[in-house]
Write a structure and sequence with these properties.
This protein is an alpha/beta fold. The chain has a five-stranded antiparallel beta sheet. A five-stranded antiparallel beta sheet has the order 15-14-18-17-16. Helix 17 crosses helix 19 and helix 25 packs across helix 26.
């Protein structure tokens, strides 16, 4: 805040009635001032002279500046202000030139209104820059819009929260930049809303919205959002620390050893009840005293001296009233190696047997913790599979439970979602992890060779067969796991034989007569709808039921939004290590990856990352290097777009129409589109008929 005394022209000597106009003019020129105060012989203010009044007086009296007294040019009754006045208060006075006078009547300066205006402008400019600096340094995200919904302020924290740069946000309409946060409703209603919790990814935010009101009129709105993820984490950590402190106090008080803690100077800080009993004294008087002042514990004095010198634990034996005490002093150092505490431990050796038993119990508890820790680590092991979303976490938890048993698992999912990786994870977390993991792609082997590949053959089973015969996949997977990938392509005429192996755990090789028993866990994977194939007679129903004991559906990548960026960086690091160079992705490329539909799922993402890293000429991969399919995807902005305000009923109608059109374009039939949208096929048909009727009506009008 600036005061009048900081910008005024200081006055050390005033003009008086004996000064001529020439002397007044010289004073003004020397001080580079537009006016000067004039006082009488008693020092009392008469008025002020200005360049204008001096010139006008000389002209009116038709004489020279030297001949005319400055009293002839005095402008009387000037505005008087105090030097301790704030600039904003001084601006309220109407003056071109004001005299600045102290409380005791001493004239100390002249204030020009032009100088006041410049100072006010500079002060306002400083306040604006100060406000911008405060907003930029604020930990909370702040967004301000004007009455038209145009963003006028957008701080650094808001950039991190929204992933939108300040330059891209300022000057644009809030609905064109950000997801709806209710700011336009705040403009309309003028109501404040506080403590609205908002979750974005794994972050938790508190959002407060207020209207900006000036002269009783709403001129804008502001939203402030605070990331409370760290606060919640710190709160949990604080609770943990408090709990640990309580546990520490409980441990100290429940210890069968006597414990006494001093600082580096030997001042007693803490003790437990056992120490009080073993010392046979009023230990309550110890707190705050130097250990050498306490005669009842003279056997401790030497320890407090020796421990800092030796900088290691020191132990002595002390006999006290038929008790043999083992007294140990232990130093406690800070990170810089400076002594902080000395811990004195008293142990009654008669309790040694009891302590031995406690040691056994403690070891048993330690073993239990090690076992629990090992189980926890096993539960957290995902075998390199990346999945941060709730759906993948649910699948990982299901795998951890199912892996411990030998139930048959059927893994569903589109091509490229990672079905083989899930199967490997099931194997590595099972009791068969030391055994073989064999994979057979049922769709990649001709039907006439598939039987021999699965079950093997005996010597001379057919023309061209090996003389010694051949082991099949089932025998190779003995005591391990067999993955039947693309089980939907398994020939119908061989399904009965596969069913027998699953049921009986035995098979007969091609050209053989004696059954062979195997101990194999069977996993199956497919991207096809086996249930529909069963209804159509393309897959045996009894085999389907045998395979579908534990179904696991792997969601496509477009439904695992939170996994895209971790997978992107995982594959980037993988290929950086493989090819020996580094690449980075621009923010536009990352946004395009997030908006893309990924019909090829994780496999397509991996291939795309490798392709971009290999063909990129520089270290930064830009949006221009993406295929055209990405450009089409990013232009859709998610497929459903509402670009203007409309009645909710109309908006719901438009969203339904767009979703049904997208589903029909993708799946080609009303049955599959209905399944994708989670409704009955009849609902899709009725909606399509309604859309056609509405379209005809609009054309006729």
């Amino acid at each position: 805040m600036i005061w009048v005394e900081e910008i005024m022209t200081q006055i050390s000597v005033c003009l008086n009635e004996t000064n001529s106009c020439l002397e007044a003019l010289q004073r003004l020129r020397k001080a580079d001032s537009s006016g000067w105060p004039v006082v009488d012989k008693n020092g009392k203010l008469i008025g002020i002279v200005t360049m204008k009044t001096l010139v006008e007086s000389v002209i009116d009296n038709d004489c020279s500046f030297a001949e005319l007294s400055c009293l002839q040019a005095v402008e009387r009754d000037p505005i008087i202000i105090k030097p301790s006045l704030r600039l904003s208060e001084a601006w309220g006075y109407q003056f071109d030139l004001a005299v600045v006078i102290e409380e005791d009547g001493q004239i100390v300066g002249i204030l020009n209104r032009a100088d006041l205006a410049v100072a006010l402008y500079q002060e306002a400019e400083f306040q604006i820059k100060e406000l911008e600096a405060v907003l930029s340094s604020a930990h909370n995200g702040i967004v301000v819009i004007n009455s038209d919904g145009i963003i006028s302020s957008f701080n650094r924290a808001a950039e991190g929260f929204t992933r939108v740069s300040r330059g891209r946000a300022i000057g644009r309409h809030v609905l064109d930049v950000l997801v709806p946060m209710g700011l336009m409703e705040t403009l309309e209603t003028g109501k404040s809303e506080y403590s609205q919790k908002l979750r974005v990814g794994r972050g938790t935010y508190i959002m407060n919205k207020d209207p900006v009101i000036q002269n009783g009129r709403i001129t804008g709105a502001v939203v402030v959002f605070q990331d409370i993820s760290e606060i919640e984490s710190v709160s949990q950590e604080l609770a943990t620390v408090k709990e640990l402190n309580r546990e520490l106090d409980s441990i100290i008080q429940s210890s069968s050893d006597g414990l006494l803690v001093t600082d580096a100077a030997g001042i007693v800080l803490r003790f437990n009840e056992t120490f009080k009993k073993m010392s046979l004294c009023n230990a309550q008087d110890f707190i705050g005293k130097g250990i050498r002042e306490i005669e009842d514990v003279t056997y401790v004095h030497s320890l407090v001296e020796l421990v800092p010198q030796r900088k290691q634990p020191v132990t002595i034996m002390e006999n006290k009233q038929n008790h043999s005490l083992l007294v140990t002093g232990t130093p406690v150092f800070d990170e810089e190696g400076k002594l902080m505490r000395v811990v004195i431990n008293l142990r009654d050796m008669t309790s040694l047997n009891q302590l031995r038993q406690e040691l056994i119990d403690t070891k048993r508890l330690s073993d239990k913790y090690h076992q629990e820790l090992s189980e926890l680590r096993n539960r957290q092991d995902t075998g390199g599979m990346i999945g941060n979303g709730p759906e993948m976490e649910r699948i990982f938890e299901l795998i951890r439970r199912v892996a411990k048993v030998d139930s048959t698992v059927l893994i569903y999912g589109e091509s490229g979602v990672g079905k083989e990786g899930i199967a490997k994870l099931l194997h590595t977390q099972s009791n068969r992890s030391e055994g073989p993991f064999i994979k057979l792609n049922c769709g990649a082997i001709p039907e006439n060779l598939l039987e021999s590949e699965l079950f093997g053959y005996e010597s001379g089973a057919f023309t061209g067969a090996r003389r010694e015969g051949k082991m099949g996949m089932f025998e190779l997977a003995h005591n391990g796991t067999l993955l039947l990938d693309e089980i939907g392509d398994f020939p119908l005429n061989l399904q009965s034989k596969l069913l027998r192996v699953i049921q009986e755990r035995e098979f007969v090789p091609v050209g053989g007569a004696t059954p062979r028993r195997v101990n194999v866990r069977i996993l199956a994977a497919t991207h096809k709808n086996l249930e529909e194939m069963t209804k159509a007679g393309q897959f045996r129903e009894d085999l389907f039921f045998r395979l579908n004991v534990v179904p696991i559906l792997i969601p496509p990548l477009r439904q695992r939004y939170e996994d895209i960026i971790p997978l992107l960086y995982h594959f980037r690091d993988k290929f950086s290590k493989k090819y020996g160079f580094k690449r980075e992705f621009s923010s536009e490329v990352i946004e395009a990856f997030l908006e893309y539909d990924w019909p090829g799922n994780v496999r397509e993402l991996e291939n795309m990352v490798e392709r971009l890293m290999v063909v990129s000429a520089g270290e930064l991969i830009s949006i221009s290097q993406l295929p055209n399919s990405f450009n089409r995807s990013t232009s859709k902005l998610g497929g459903v777009s509402i670009n203007t305000l409309m009645p909710l009923k109309k908006a719901v109608y438009e969203v339904e129409r767009q979703l049904i059109d997208m589903a029909l374009d993708k799946y080609g039939s009303t049955y599959r589109a209905a399944a994708a949208l989670g409704v009955n096929q009849s609902t899709i048909v009725r909606r399509m008929a309604r859309f056609r009727t509405d379209a005809k009506s609009s054309v006729s009008q």
